[in-house]
Amino acid sequence: EVQLVESGGGLVQPGGSLRLSCRSSGFTFSNVPMSWVRQAPGKDLEWVASINSRGSRTYYVESVQGRFNSSRDNAENTLYLQMNSLKTEDAAMYYCATCWMDGCYSESAQRGQGTQVTVSS
Q1: Long-range contacts of 73-77 (CB under 8 A, 24+ apart)
Q2: What residues pair up with 119 in beta bridges, in sequence order?
Q3: What are phi and psi for residue 63, nearest 5 degrees?
Q4: What pLDDT digit, counting tens, does each position of 47-70 carry?
Q5: For residue 108, is pLDDT > 90?
Q6: What pLDDT is stored for residue 84 in this prediction?
Q7: What share of the chain has pLDDT > 90, as a percent?
Q8: Per-residue DSSP letter, 15
Q9: CB of 72 within 8 A of CB of 51?
Q10: Is a pLDDT exceeding 90 seen at residue 30?
């Protein structure tokens, strides 16, 4: 059974930083491209970042380019999202998912329970 467990969310002031983690189990993590998606209250799901299986390629939605960085530790089956210079519009529930870019909008993409990020002064 695929399990994805996100952590690291919380309350941060605008301009602050957070590092999200996603511990994975139940599948061969090192073979699977992974992504981060987010959903703010009343808004649609938004793809945020994707990283290939080796961690050598990353892609980001334009709104987080230069501020967010996704990485992975295949030995620890863990995905990370370093978020810097956070803005109020980054506030959302963040999920890690077994998908790639637009594929993250498919119902077949598996996600964890999410971790809440709140950006407020």
Answers
A1: 74/29, 74/30, 76/23, 77/23, 77/24, 77/25, 77/29, 77/30
A2: 12
A3: -70, -15
A4: 999 999 999 999 999 999 999 999
A5: no
A6: 98
A7: 97
A8: T
A9: yes
A10: yes
Q: Are 58 and 49 in contact (CB under 8 A)?
A: yes
**Is residue 111 over pLDDT 90?**
yes
* Token couple for 118: 């709140």
Token pair belonging to 14: 């605008």
Q: How far apart are CA 113 and CA 116, in angstroms?
A: 10
Q: Take residue 92 and report the two structure tokens written for it.
A: 């959302």
pLDDT of residue 107: 84
Supply the DSSP string of 18-66, one letter for each residue: EEEEEEEESS-GGGS-EEEEEE-TTS--EEEEEE-TTS--EEE-GGGTT
3-state helix, strand, coil in the chain (%, to 5): 10, 45, 45
Six-digit token pair at 60?
């980001």
The size of the chain, in residues, is 121
